[in-house]
From TrEMBL, chains A, B:
SUPFAM superfamilies: Nicotinate mononucleotide:5,6-dimethylbenzimidazole phosphoribosyltransferase (CobT)
CDD domains found in the cross-reference section: DMB-PRT_CobT (cd02439)
Domain of life where this protein originates: Archaea
Gene3D superfamilies for the chain: 3.40.50.10210
Record-given protein name: UPF0284 protein ASUL_03454
Origin organism lineage: Archaea, Thermoproteota, Thermoprotei, Sulfolobales, Sulfolobaceae
Family under the similarity heading: Belongs to the UPF0284 family.
UniProt GO molecular function: nicotinate-nucleotide-dimethylbenzimidazole phosphoribosyltransferase activity
Organism this protein belongs to: Candidatus Aramenus sulfurataquae
């Protein structure tokens, strides 16, 4: 019973699906201590293109290393790649605004990287352009697919997600998750409070100031797509749902979030409350890495990484297509083992 | 009986298909008299993004005008858009190297615009990158589609096509077509002969010097795609087939060209001979615009425009899916009429 709010897994089961990975960066990830998605602050900007390359090719080109946290924990892209290879569905990378571009084909939405939200993330025309072109892309994919699964990779994305949710009036402070078991909540709160201090009164003004290119791209694509949309991610995808609701309220009924058990059970955040507030459906996949052969994967059970690169939604959809959790774990281990071999 | 060489229309009938429009520019189109795809030489670089925007949106954004030749003849994108809207299949724009980018989402292959082939079109690493990323894109689309229909928009593309074919050893001089009924053969021949004067001995060296980003992108995508490939275009697509053959000979059996009757019947070029030389299959669509209500469309029967933006292949595939030529013409006229209204 993976459905927590609504019955989205029943709605999407068996649907003809495609996966999009939407990548972006903001300068929020350069703030020391805000994210563990990169060995140094500067390297966080390499994480989205590295995730994209790993997802598609099984190896990275923008960096000469496996995409892991500083302590050596593997990117959730191993789960996404495992799920995609079992699902055998098409996947494309979409760049909504990354400082470093992946060295593989990607769909360009004409976006730009976000700046520090304390000064303002995006110029208004850039924010509008990302939504507009995202919408066109969603429309373009509507003929052949009944379901779009959308994942994300953006370092410090939970901070911009929290800023966006609070800026749109939700009770979201301290409720977003983190890739670290030590969610740096005081720091996130301080940044978001500062960003909220001077706020434009209109919707696009607020989104331009507080949001990130990924959230706007995901919202645009979802609004343009004519079928169901599975937002594959954690609390960031609640923020994406909130943007979708603001820009096209009637679309939300076709939207659900698919995430991991590690996010739903996370004590440092509250995705269920956030999803309930926005009204988006919420489901999760019951992956259990506690019996994995690899310590790097068992660490997921200790609150590390948790989600990202569409891992939760893709593996959830795989289980709905009849692929067992055991088979997914076995494929994840196979991919992770190859990663470790290549790193030697 | 649209099959001229081979029986490709039988092979692809009923297949699950997607359309890609590959756009690019070279500075060859800046040579006075070489092309009519633009009101001035400089404006030829706006034609590919304008074609892309018109195909997807039904209007142009990079230019404030309908995409027509200087004498007011409509872009073949009206045929492509009509066919797509009847086929209801997904379409994406791929930028292999355009000077002006379309203001819609497009897949970026990391290419660059070509220069004048007399000096050398592309740096070798750029040419290799376009092929490599095109191949990845083709692979990415292989799960859900059995057939990829690939069209092109590149001004002066027949000149780079002729240079490529001759440079690869084919008897192609004076055999490529033109968007004008007065094919500027002496000028094309002069440029190609000059470009051929100093030629690297290896394959990628030759392609870098003589080819254009579109040909390399189309070849890469075709090589990566696991199903059938319908090259939707005229003599340029023979050059693309020749590149495919050089880079992966075994793929050619899954490749066919779909073009218009106007290209096959063109007295100023010889696509049948060129296709026979390369060994690619060739089929055409029997659109007849002689009874059209619009002079701009009847001009196609007088040798203007003829092909482009995937017009021939897309309308051929539409007829294979049971859509009559009359219905296509009627849709083309509807789209063209709206164009004329908006231009007023």
């Amino acid at each position: 019973m993976p459905d927590v709010l609504g019955k989205f897994s029943e709605e999407i089961k068996g649907k003809k699906a495609m996966f999009l990975l939407v990548i972006a960066t903001t300068d929020v990830s350069l703030i020391p201590g805000i994210t563990i998605a990169g060995a140094t602050e500067e390297l966080t900007h390499f994480t989205p293109p590295a995730d994209a390359e790993f997802l598609i090719l099984g190896k990275c080109k923008v960096i000469n290393a496996i995409p892991v946290t500083p302590s050596g924990l593997p990117t959730p892209a191993v789960i996404s790649r495992a799920s995609l290879s079992l699902l055998k569905i098409n996947a494309l990378v979409v760049d909504a605004g990354s400082k470093i571009k992946p060295k593989i084909p990607y769909v360009d939405l004409g976006g730009e990287p976000g700046r520090d939200i304390r000064k303002g993330s995006l110029k208004r025309e850039v924010a509008e352009r990302i939504v507009e072109r995202g919408t066109i892309l969603g429309e373009e994919l509507s003929n052949d697919y009944e379901l779009l699964i959308i994942g994300e990779s953006i370092p410090a994305g939970t901070t911009t997600a929290m800023a966006t949710l609070v800026g749109l009036g939700y009770d979201a402070m301290d409720k977003v998750s983190s890739a670290s078991p030590d969610n740096p909540k005081p720091l996130k709160r301080k940044i978001v409070e500062e960003a909220l201090r001077e706020l434009p009164s209109d919707l696009m003004g607020r989104l331009s100031k507080l949001s990130d290119p990924m959230l706007l791209g995901v919202a645009g694509i979802s609004l343009g797509f004519k079928g169901k949309v599975l937002l594959a991610g954690g609390t960031q995808m609640v923020a994406a749902s909130a943007v979708i609701k603001e820009l096209g309220r009637e679309k939300l009924k076709d939207v659900g979030i698919g995430t991991t058990r590690w996010i739903v059970e996370d004590k440092s955040s509250d995705i269920i409350d956030l999803a309930r507030q926005t009204g988006v459906k919420l489901s999760f996949v019951n992956l259990d890495f506690s019996r994995s052969r690899f310590d790097g994967l068992r660490a997921y059970e200790r609150g590390f990484v948790k989600e990202g690169v569409g891992a939760g939604g893709l593996s959830l959809f795989a289980t709905l297509q009849g692929i067992s959790e055991e088979r997914i774990l076995s494929k994840v281990e196979e991919i992770y083992e190859n990663l470790l071999k290549e790193a030697k």
